[in-house]
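I am hoping you can look over what I have pasted underneath with an eye to the fold:
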Amino acid sequence: MVKLYTKIKQKPEDFVVEELPILEPKESGNFYLLKLHKSNTSTLEAVRILSRFLKIPLKEIGFAGLKDKFAVTTQYLTIPDSYTVESCCFGIKNNRWVRKETVNVGKETGFCVEILGKVNRKLNLGDLKGNRFTITVRNFEKNLRGKFYRNLEIVKSYGFPNYFGEQRFGSVKSRDDFVLRYILKGDFDGALRSYFFGKSTVDYWGDWKKLYKTLSPALEEYEKDLIKGLMRGLPAEKAFRILPKNVRLMFNFAFQSFLWNETLREYVEMKYPFVRIPFINNWKLSYYLKVHDFKHLEKLEIPYTGHVYKPEDPKLKKVMKKVFKKYGVKEEWFDKETAGMVVMTDGLRKAIVKPEDFRILEKTKKHVKLQFTLPPGSYATVLLRFLIKG
């Protein structure tokens, strides 16, 4: 199998993402609208650095989506106008984040924010029209080209399964080890151990001073505060709440996204001829090769839990039951309040997606450059896995 990231992310500028904003800047409003232009930096990392340097609480900075780290991306932020905000840049110097006059985004690790104007409300997750991707696929050998164009015809006819991509699973440090599963069982000590080490065995767990000394060089400030809390004698649940809420919610998103992906994979395998493609953590994604009921599939929405949005498709209902049984999901977990948040909530997500404005901008014997637009919440890497590896 072709390794995806030997093809599409050799350089940050090979993977360009532009957020299509839903808000237009105006002269007045209660929030600043800023453009964030970054490379080799995750959205959360950029927001945390901005928060620390500008002394703005993390929860006050709004954004519409999480953009890839190893890429050149443009997206938008909001900050209440009660804070002092200015256009600025940040980069790495001597292994530390520092403020800089300029950053050569795409060539350097770092980011810049530019004030565009004002808006009347905060940006929340999903507040965007979509994302435009410009992606260079390298090492485009002859054997890959045939596969690529064959799979592209399938995508043009039937779209592709709308799986959550690997960015959604940044909190999963080892296979099937989800922090949320510990939280749902009330095991906050296990949740913290999983957060820091995944399923790895650590002989000094509980020796908080040693833990701090060992991990602190690589930790975020809030992670250091968490361990300091344990050192002061805080119980695991209270220490866990030191993590910012958006970080805690990521544990919920990761587990629910995994269950949703597994549901869609099982559904595809039940109904259509398919190819199974390696994903992260030894997981698999299955892509259909032909669809006999495209009108049905195109409209199909898969619920996260089904306790509010009941699946009408009998095969989907059967698959959801199978997946939940396999992973030990209990009904009492749905809409459960724990660790200062509500988890395992229900919602709907489209089963498939069709890229819009798909164009081949350049092609040679060594590379091809693609451009396309996807709706909010859909992942270019999920499409590329099929085009390159299917």
